[in-house]
Design goal:
Layout lengths: L11 E4 L2 H11 L3 E8 L2 E9 L2 E7 L19 E5 L3 H10 L8 E3 L2 E7 L5 E7 L16
Parallel strand pairs: 1-4, 5-8
Antiparallel strand pairs: 2-3, 3-4, 6-7, 7-8
Length: 144
């Protein structure tokens, strides 16, 4: 065994519309593009980061401009859990930016709010809490 060699898992999402995905992740969720591959003056691949989390996006377009077709819904069955310090703050932040997210609730000892990106990939922001299970967040109650 080499020791601590594996450092990070980075989700790699195939996307149908890179501009829509960048708008969602950068403008909506606050990620920053740290690396990119540009072909024909368009971002075809990129690495996005927010805090300690990375996400890679790859455009589904072929080099000739045509689209790659995939059977079924892209993102079906994919769910990424992003453990954070304050999922309620994430919920307030992204909904203020116009991103639709589920009303936070407590499950398995964590506040959870879920959203889907433009291609259907599910992202769950979660944070540990002592609040009772199945509690739902109310914006009128700031003590949660």
């Amino acid at each position: 065994m080499i020791g601590d060699n594996v450092k990070e898992a980075v989700p790699f999402f195939l996307v149908r519309d890179m501009e829509a995905s960048l708008h969602f992740y950068v403008d909506g969720l606050g990620f920053k593009m740290t690396k990119q591959w540009v072909y024909d003056d368009k971002v075809r691949w990129c690495l996005l980061r927010r805090d300690g989390v990375g996400v890679m996006l790859q455009d589904l377009r072929k080099d000739d401009g045509g689209s790659v077709s995939l059977e079924g819904q892209v993102g079906l069955g994919v769910s990424i859990m992003l453990v954070c310090d304050d999922a309620l703050a994430i919920y307030r932040e992204v909904t203020a930016r116009g991103i639709s997210a589920s009303r936070p609730f407590v499950g398995n000892g964590m506040w959870v709010t879920s959203l889907r990106d433009p291609d259907g990939y599910r992202l769950d922001f979660e944070s540990y809490t002592d609040v009772p299970e199945e509690t739902e967040y109310s914006e009128a109650d700031t003590s949660t």
